[in-house]
Design brief:
The chain has about 290 residues and is α/β, with parallel strands linked by helices. Strands 1-2-4-3-5-6-7-8 form an 8-stranded mixed sheet, with helices on both faces. The chain folds into 2 domains: about 220 residues, Alpha/Beta hydrolase fold, catalytic domain (Rossmann fold); about 35 residues, no CATH class. About 45% of the residues lie in helices and about 20% in strands.
């Protein structure tokens, strides 16, 4: 009887704990960008004690995929529920998670400088967020993650700006090898890549200076390896994901360059079921950096 009562009380306690430690999602937020000459929308997750605590929190920038927006990680990824659970159990420390809208910019500047999303993100968005919220605005308390296009963006931004990020955790990163991009159909190129790298390009002509300046496989060969090593890397890709070649090639190159990282191939495809099941480990990895 005593054991039954104890189990019941623990059950009630766990329910109360989960309710008490529920964080807050705020959507429909925006920042006016001089660089983009437009509003940048974003959603934000605030830990449960944000409104009652005087502390400053570490921050993770969580990037969405192609054709999604700033609401996707909450609407489809249920990241707020995952954060509530994992913070409550101590799997990860309390953190602020910021989810910006990037349209289909791929989080970089386009080839002709008309849409400079990367410049906006680094020069305007990060300073705006970290001056508006109670955030520890230092490298060791800042992480970046994302899925697909957002996984690509997380990789590129961490490689280009290693002085800003402690950890990077992309899921199903949209990284393509040169061979893959050369073989993309013209319809695919004109719809997806042309706006970033140039219209009408075919075959090897697609491997422009701008392409190489924004491809992780080229950046790793070009940038300062010692600076790259100051960021902790974790990435994964499903065994049935069409992006397996770029992710595997990135893992091999990182190994050859002796850059420490964690790479996972899990059972799954390029879908929300896979990302929901992976974001907990990715954020835990980033959270370890904050300790």
């Amino acid at each position: 009887m005593k054991n039954t009562i104890t189990i019941f009380l623990l059950f009630i306690l766990s329910i109360n704990l989960s309710i008490a430690q529920k964080g807050k999602i705020i959507e429909d937020l925006s920042m006016e960008s001089k660089i983009l000459k437009d509003s940048v929308h974003f959603s934000i997750y605030l830990p449960s004690d944000y409104d009652t605590s005087d502390r400053k929190y570490p921050v993770v920038y969580l990037l969405h995929g192609y054709t999604d927006d700033e609401t996707a990680w909450v609407q489809f990824g249920e990241v707020n529920r995952i954060l509530d659970r994992d913070i409550a159990t101590g799997k990860m420390p309390p953190m602020i998670v910021v989810m910006p809208d990037a349209g289909v910019s791929w989080y970089i500047n386009d080839h002709d400088g008309k849409v400079r999303y990367e410049d906006m993100f680094i020069e305007e968005f990060l300073p705006h967020i970290e001056s508006s919220y109670s955030i520890r605005n230092q490298k060791r308390f800042r992480g970046i993650a994302g899925l697909s296009m957002g996984g690509y963006g997380a990789f590129v931004l961490a490689l280009k700006y290693p002085e800003l990020f402690a950890a990077c955790a992309p899921l199903s990163a949209a990284i393509y090898t040169d061979e893959e991009v050369i073989s993309h159909s013209q319809k695919r190129w004109d719809k997806t890549e042309a706006v970033l790298y140039g219209k009408g390009l075919q075959g090897k002509k697609r491997l422009t200076k701008h392409w190489k300046a924004n491809n992780p496989l080229h950046l790793l060969k070009k940038l300062d390896i010692e600076k790259i090593k100051t960021v902790r890397y974790y990435f994964d890709c499903g065994d049935d994901d069409f992006l397996y070649k770029g992710n595997a090639a990135t893992h091999i190159l990182l190994k050859d360059l002796k850059i420490a990282h964690e790479f996972r191939i899990r059972d799954g495809q390029h879908n929300w079921m896979y990302w929901r099941s992976g974001i907990s480990d990715a954020l835990e990895f980033i959270g370890e950096s904050f300790h």
